[in-house]
Design a protein that fits this description.
9 helices, single chain, mainly alpha, about 220 residues
Amino acid sequence: MLPTTGNSRQDSGRALGWKNLRLPCLWWLLSLLLCALFVAVTFAYFDVPIARRVYGIWGATEGLSTGFASAVLLSVETAVALALVIIRITRGHLSPFREATVLACLASICAYAINDSTLKFVFGIPNPGAVVHGTRHAFNILKGSSSSSFPSGHMVLAGAFAGVYMRLYRTSILLLSLLLGIAAVLLIVGDWHFVSDVIAGAFAGVSAGILAAEVWIAHAR
């Protein structure tokens, strides 16, 4: 029998790695197709009627909007991640949960930045307030801005954070899914987003968080 060379072992490792990744990738592609279908249906039939039905139901929400503004949430995540990094430097180690928290914060910040600088610009959908007051609910390809509605930046932010824990701590999936659902309802009732916005934002965010966790697991191995 010929001895196994280093290159052969590496090739076998790559083949095994691809086999391990192939099924999750197929599941993700199927989830992407289902998400696209849900977004298309809600965009066409439910977004505007629901937005008109709930518009103004909370009255003035400036205080709530300020307290949970993206800049505030990003600042909190940055502070938490920085504090944990300092602890890691000074003490030499972090617990697995704290490592996961740093990863969740960084994944959330990066996903939000990509969403606001790229996805919202690409789709260019006006927010519910503008649509209720007469603006057409439509895609304006490559004409959007960070204030555009689709996908929801808050859901991307929260979804990416939750996605890391969902992958690393499977027992947290139910609780985090419930919290994301509550956040989605609040964003819709508060006139910040359409239903399609929160669906797309949650999918993009959770996908980013799971990807970050998968990369972290591969690095740890």
